[in-house]
C-alpha cells in the first residue's frame, strides 16, 4: 500500500517508516521539524542523539535498500498539504503530525494557541484535501486515551449505547480531556466524525495509550534510533523515571501516584497501526480503536522501574512530589480494547520486558541525560 506518514521525523513516525517499509509498503513522509525546535525551546534534548533528516534517510537507504520520499513542510499550510495528497493519492494517511505534549500546551496563552492551531488546522487541512483530491484515502488519525479522561464508569471504544428518559441511542462517549493539548484531540475527533458523515470519508481514530520503549528490531544502526525525551514537558512519566534511574536520581511520581493509564510497547504500537492500515474501514465509516495493552498507576510504573534498575545494579528510591497538574489522583479506570484484538493484535512485550531493553540502551546515553537533569522536575503548573 502507499502510506503517507505525517510527522515522520517524530518518535512514532520514524519508527513506523521503517516498520512499514520492511513489510513492503511504499512510504512517503512529511514533517516540519517543530518537535526538534520545541524541545530545544525548553532547553532540552532527546537522550538518543537524533541525526538531521538527510543523514537519517541515508542510513535508511543503507539498511533497507531504499528510502521514503520525504517532504519538509507544515500541515497547517493548506496548499502544501493539498499538493501532497493530490499528487500521491495515498491509500492511507497515518496522521501523527501534531504537537503531542500536554505541559507544553499549558505554559501560557501562546503555547495553548499554537497547539490549538497546529493540531486542529493540520487535521482539517487533511480532511479537506482528502475530500477534494483523494476521497478513497483512509485517514488513520492518532488521538489519545486522554480524550476520555477518567470517568467513574467503563470506557468503551468511542461510542456507547445509552437509554435516557425511555429512549435509546448509540452516541459518542463523553470526552473529559485534562489539558489544552488533549482538548485539541477531542476537537479533531469531532471534526473527523463530521467529515466522515458529510463526505463519506473513511477514518480510524486511534485512542492511543502511552507508548514506551526506545528500540525496535528495525533499528540496527545508531543513526536509525528514534527519539527518547525525558524532561518534564516532553518526557512521559515512564520516560522520566527511566532517565532518573539511569543517573541514580529518585523517581518522582506526581501527587498520590494512583493516576492510572493504558500503556503499550513501541513495537506493539507499530503492530497496531499496521493492522489498522491493512484493514481499512468502509467508505463513510468512522471507527474508534482504543490502542493500549496494559494499565498501570504511576506508582506501579515507578515500582517496575525500581525493580528493573536494581537488576542493572542501580539503587533508586521513589519520592512522590506535589502534582503540578489538575487531575484525579485516585480513580476508577476500565477502558475496552477489543477492536484491535479482533483484527489479530497480539502484544509481544510486557512493560518489564521492554524496560529491560530500554534501560540497557539508555545507559549508553547517561551523559546526555545528566547534562539536562535540571529539566526533569516540574515547572509548568496547571493552576498558575
Ligand atoms: N507517543 C505517545 O505515547 C502517544 C500517546 C498518545 C497519542 N500520541 C499521538 O501520536 C502522534 C505522534 O506522537 P509522537 O510521540 O510520535 O510525537 P512527536 O512529536 O515525536 O511526532 C510528531 C511529529 O509531527 C511533526 N509535526 C507537528 N506538527 C506538524 C505540522 N503542523 N506539520 C508537519 N509536521 C508536524 C513534529 O515535528 C514531530 O516530528 C501525536 O499526534 C500524539 O499526540 C502519542
Structure characterization notes:
There is one protein chain. The chain is an alpha/beta fold. It has one domain: NAD(P)-binding Rossmann-like Domain (Rossmann fold, 3-Layer(aba) Sandwich). It has 13 helices and twelve strands. The strands form three sheets. Strands 3-2-1-4-5-8-11 form a seven-stranded parallel sheet, with helices on both faces. It has a three-stranded mixed sheet with strand order 9-10-12. Strand 6 and strand 7 form a beta hairpin. The longest helix has 25 residues. The chain is globular. The relative contact order is 0.15.
Number of domains: 1
How far is the first residue's CA from the last residue's CA?
48 Å
- Enumerate the spans where pLDDT stays under 50 for 5 or more consecutive residues: none
Strand % is 15-25%
CATH superfamily heading: NAD(P)-binding Rossmann-like Domain
Look at the helices and sheets and give the structural class: alpha/beta
Named at the architecture level, the CATH assignment is: 3-Layer(aba) Sandwich
Main sheet makeup: 7 strands, parallel
**SSE series:** EHEHHEHEHHEEEHEEHEHEEHHHH
What overall geometry do the principal axes of the alpha carbons give? globular
Order of strands, main sheet, comes to: 3-2-1-4-5-8-11
Question: Could you report the average pLDDT, rounded to the nearest whole number?
Answer: 98
Bound ligands, each once: nicotinamide-adenine-dinucleotide
Give the proportion of residues in helices.
Answer: 25-40%
Amino acid at each position: 500500500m502507499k502510506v503517507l506518514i505525517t510527522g515522520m521525523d517524530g518518535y512514532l513516525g520514524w519508527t513506523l517508516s521503517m516498520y512499514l517499509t520492511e513489510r513492503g509498503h511504499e512510504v512517503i513522509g512529511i514533517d516540519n521539524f517543530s518537535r526538534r525546535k520545541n524541545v530545544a525551546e525548553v532547553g532540552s534534548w532527546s537522550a538518543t542523539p537524533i541525526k538531521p533528516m538527510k543523514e537519517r534517510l541515508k542510513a535508511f537507504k543503507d539498511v533497507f535498500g531504499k528510502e521514503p520520499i520525504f517532504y519538509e513542510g507544515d500541515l497547517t499550510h493548506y496548499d502544501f498539504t493539498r499538493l501532497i495528497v493530490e499528487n500521491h493519492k495515498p491509500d492511507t494517511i497515518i496522521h501523527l503530525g501534531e504537537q503531542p505534549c500536554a505541559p507544553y500546551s499549558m505554559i501560557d496563552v501562546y503555547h495553548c494557541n499554537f497547539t490549538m492551531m497546529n493540531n486542529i488546522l493540520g487535521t482539517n487541512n487533511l480532511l479537506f484535501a482528502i475530500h477534494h483530491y483523494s476521497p478513497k484515502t483512509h485517514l488513520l488519525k492518532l488521538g489519545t486515551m486522554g480524550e476520555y479522561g477518567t470517568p467513574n464508569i467503563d470506557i468503551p471504544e468511542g461510542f456507547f449505547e445509552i437509554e435516557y428518559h425511555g429512549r435509546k441511542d448509540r452516541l459518542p462517549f463523553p470526552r473529559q480531556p485534562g489539558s489544552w493539548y488533549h482538548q485539541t484531540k477531542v476537537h479533531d475527533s469531532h471534526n473527523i466524525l463530521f467529515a466522515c458523515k458529510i463526505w463519506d470519508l473513511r477514518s480510524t481514530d486511534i485512542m492511543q495509550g502511552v507508548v514506551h520503549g526506545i528500540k525496535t528490531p528495525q533499528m540496527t544502526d545508531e543513526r536509525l534510533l528514534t527519539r527518547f525525551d525525558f524532561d518534564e514537558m516532553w518526557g512521559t512519566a515512564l520516560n522520566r523515571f527511566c532517565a532518573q534511574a539511569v543517573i541514580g536520581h529518585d523517581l518522582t511520581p506526581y501527587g498520590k501516584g494512583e493516576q492510572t493509564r493504558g500503556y503499550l510497547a513501541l513495537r506493539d504500537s507499530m503492530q497496531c497501526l499496521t493492522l489498522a492500515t491493512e484493514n481499512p474501514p468502509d467508505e463513510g465509516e468512522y471507527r474508534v480503536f482504543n490502542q493500549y495493552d496494559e494499565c498501570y498507576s504511576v506508582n506501579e510504573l515507578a515500582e517496575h522501574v525500581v525493580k528493573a534498575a536494581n537488576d542493572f545494579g542501580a539503587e533508586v528510591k521513589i519520592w512522590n512530589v506535589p502534582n503540578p497538574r489538575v487531575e484525579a489522583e485516585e480513580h476508577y479506570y476500565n477502558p475496552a480494547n477489543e477492536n484491535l484484538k479482533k483484527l489479530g493484535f497480539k502484544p509481544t512485550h510486557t512493560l518489564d520486558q521492554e524496560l529491560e531493553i530500554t534501560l540497557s540502551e539508555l545507559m549508553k546515553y547517561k551523559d546526555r541525560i545528566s547534562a539536562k537533569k535540571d529539566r526533569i522536575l516540574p515547572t509548568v503548573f496547571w493552576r498558575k
